[in-house]
Specification:
The chain is α/β, with parallel strands linked by helices. Helices cover about 45% and strands about 15% of the residues. The strands form four sheets. It has a seven-stranded mixed beta sheet with strand order 2-10-9-8-7-3-4, with helices on both faces. A two-stranded parallel ribbon has the order 1-12. Strands 5-6 form a two-stranded antiparallel ribbon. α4 packs across α9 and α10 packs across α11. Bound molecules: pyridoxal-5'-phosphate. The site of pyridoxal-5'-phosphate (PLP) has 12 residues, from α4. Its cofactor is pyridoxal 5'-phosphate. It is an enzyme of class 2 (transferase). Keywords: Aminotransferase, Pyridoxal phosphate, Transferase.
Length: about 400
């Protein structure tokens, strides 16, 4: 059976991680990794997570199955966190394995509702968006998003392309901290997007994988809430991996709003059946950690503070790196790195430059020059900036 099975294309980011691990040089710098890193290079367990977990261990009396849609306490807590005012009668939620699971189930839901589905993706976007849609055989189109010349979102171009979106097309948007560009939308941009989606009858799917990493929890939610508050239909895929540091525990949630109670009931039922047909019950441990944190004022305050320090570290590194690059290259255009948000930015390096950075400077970045700012430290910034200036 498997003699003719074609080899699977290895994931580019995972390949960079493996190459970095195998590099014996002491001064190597990993800017390819996709996870948050603290100053000492670790991806720590948050104290709020640790305390919440201890509480669960002490109090949990069963490991029996949860609901097919996952723990209602978790789902409601996430819906409240992201939407603020939750129109309960229009709400449907689903716990999933990670944000990736939420994205996949949201695509499945949309295809069940609209068999001739088209999904619009920003150019560029997280490579897994395209990969999942290709694996599912769902048609997708790109809308222009990032302008490499300015390092910012090209909003007129985005709106022009999305002007071609048809009723019931799905438009995938990054809630904040656009991956891989770091170029986010302003409040006015979200508002214009809301106008356009309303006019076209297209449905947003907001991928929210970096809540709290840009400007703060409420600030990071303000844009997407402009859509959830005004549009009749709204989909969101939440990931707890980065914001709660729960990567391997696989915490995710689909948050959906239907036009009314009847639609919400149909969405709920369909979502539950999607879990049933994929893996039956979703993972519960990480979800319960999140629900415990969000439901306890002390743990929630502790989490908010830790999230804030991760954000401050990233934004401070962004400013220092922008300065160092400006100095090393003499090009003030690099200052835009300090304006961008989240862990990722695109340096616009070709394959040769990426290889040269790796071979000559032991600096690892993903193809196309995506860097994870959190992989820097104040000590490694000058060397990383010099390496970039050298290969440019
Ligand atoms: C843009 C984006 N969406 C979703 C995810 C999903 O993350 P996870 O499945 O680990 O929760 C990621 C993770 O890297 C991401 O970058």
């Amino acid at each position: 059976m498997f003699a003719h099975l074609p080899a699977a294309e290895p994931d580019k980011i995972l390949r960079v991680m493996a190459e970095f691990a195998a590099d014996p040089r002491d001064d190597k710098i990993d800017l390819g990794v996709g996870v948050y890193k603290a100053e000492d290079g670790t991806t720590p367990v948050l104290k709020a997570v640790h305390d919440s977990e201890a509480r669960i261990l002490e109090r949990q009396t069963t490991k029996g199955y949860t609901a097919l849609s996952g723990d209602p306490g978790f789902r409601n807590a996430v819906a409240e966190l992201v939407l603020g005012d939750v129109p309960q009668e229009r709400l449907a939620t689903l716990a999933t394995p990670g944000g990736t699971g939420a994205i996949r189930q949201a695509f499945e839901l949309a295809r069940k509702a609209q068999s001739d589905l088209t999904v619009w993706l920003s150019d560029p976007t997280w490579t897994n968006h395209e990969a999942i849609l290709d694996a599912m055989g769902i048609r997708w189109r790109r809308y222009r998003y990032y302008d490499p010349a300015t390092g910012r979102a090209d909003v007129p171009a985005m709106l022009e392309d999305l002007g071609e979106a048809a009723r019931d097309d799905l438009v995938l948007l990054h809630g904040c901290c656009h991956n891989p560009t770091g170029a986010d939308l302003t409040a006015a941009d979200w508002s214009a997007l809301g106008d356009l989606l309303e006019r076209r009858g297209a449905v947003p799917l907001v991928d929210l994988a970096y809540l709290g990493f840009a400007d703060g929890i409420e600030a990071d939610l303000a844009g997407l809430r402009q859509l959830s508050h005004r549009l009749p239909e709204f989909l969101l895929a939440f990931s707890g991996s980065k914001s709660f540091g729960l990567y391997r525990d696989r915490v995710g949630c689909v948050v959906a709003l239907g036009a009314g109670q009847q639609a919400a009931d149909a969405i709920s039922g369909t979502l539950a059946s999607l879990n049933r047909h994929s893996y039956a019950f979703p993972p519960d441990h990480g979800a319960r950690i999140v629900a415990t944190i969000l439901g306890d004022p002390g743990l929630r305050a502790s989490w908010t503070e830790e999230l804030s320090s991760m954000r401050t570290r990233i934004n401070t590194l962004r400013r220092s790196f922008a300065e160092a690059l400006t100095e090393a290259t003499g090009d003030p255009g690099w200052q835009v790195l300090a304006e961008q948000r989240g862990m990722f930015s695109l340096l616009g390096l070709g394959d040769d430059a990426v290889r040269q950075m790796r071979e000559e400077h032991a600096v690892y970045v993903v193809g196309g020059g995506r860097i994870n700012v959190a992989g820097l430290t104040p000590a490694s910034i000058p060397a990383a900036a010099r390496a970039i200036a050298d290969v440019l």
